Amino acid sequence: MNIALTNNLRVIRHAWHFYYASVFVIMVVCGSIGIACLTP
Q: Count of domains in the chain?
């Protein structure tokens, strides 16, 4: 029971890391595109 619980928590933690990494990448890409559009 305890092993399954910690395993689920590990999966949830990985999912959150993946979500934050995806948001960070999207922000960086959008930021670089915005800077490229602003620079003449």
A: 1
**Which residue range(s) make up the domain with 11?**
1-40
Record the pTM.
0.55
Exposure letters 24-35 (e unless 16+ CB within 10 A, then b): eeeeeeeeeeee
List, for residues 1-37, the tens digit of each pLDDT value.
Answer: 677 778 888 888 888 889 999 999 999 988 888 888 8
Q: How far is CA 19 from CA 7, 11, 13, 34, in A?
A: 18, 12, 10, 22
C-alpha pair distances (Å), 22 with each of 18, 27, 29: 6, 9, 11
